[in-house]
Task: structure prediction
Amino acid sequence: MKIIPVAFCFDDNLESAAGVCISSLLINAKANTFYDLFILHSDKCTFPDGKLNELPLFYHNCKITYRTVGREFEHAFEIRGITAAAYYRLLIPELIPEYDKIIYSDVDVIFRNDLADFYENTDLTGYYVAGVSTPYSDISSYVKSKIGVDIVQYIASGNLILNSKSMREDGLVARFREVAQRKWKYQDMDTINQVCAGKIKLLPPWFCITGTMSEILCDKNQSYYPKEEAAYALNYGIIHYNGPKPWQQYCLNFDIWWEYYRKSIFFEPQFYYNFYQSRLNEYDLLPLWKRIKMVLRYFKIRGIVKK
Result:
């Protein structure tokens, strides 16, 4: 049996989304993979739905442990609607001391493969953290001027593998606390990239497919990743909905999230119906010319309408 530790950080607002995320992880687990799951939360969280505790009863390949951060980061800088729970990942080496290496994941994520072999084969000797960078991005100038690194070395913080042992030995959590007090535009992500600079290992793109990464992988002329690696990422990669959320509106890969929602114990037919019914109503209210543009765009994408 391969035991893989995974940590999540969220509050009551994302309880259902977290359940779908964790369900996708467990659905795609191999027979000999066991996930030791940790949920970091503030002492204000109650997780009123209660279904998270049902997951180990439904899937026997996991265990869930709750760890409170108390009220740390309670007054931390927030921006773009991202709450203080985003900072909790900075405390993982201290709050989960039983593991020297651990996966961290946001919960606006869908897993589509097993992580055991990749976790075991990722050597973090000489590194504090491993993650996926986005080779080109509209935040390149910000990263260069504020963090002091090129965008190709700046990793997304939604999916990480942490070398907790080295972080504890080198006192990185204290450093995280200090640096996180600044009003960073990208909060925890900037903090991690700032503190861990020079000791960050880059992972293949499938480990964290954001919207920008999808754009790169879908470009047949991109030269960043081999064709086979890009194809694998698009078909089996971890999807991170770091922008619009699929349970709130249509967005890239929204259909994949809803597929796993329907498979999960969190599925509620009324919520499912209301979402799609509201989207239909939106289209019904569009002016005729906008509907025509949408149809033309649809056919153009598929090569039916040519310039």
Notes: The longest strand covers residues 33-41. The chain has two domains: 2-267, 271-307. Residues 271-307 form one domain.
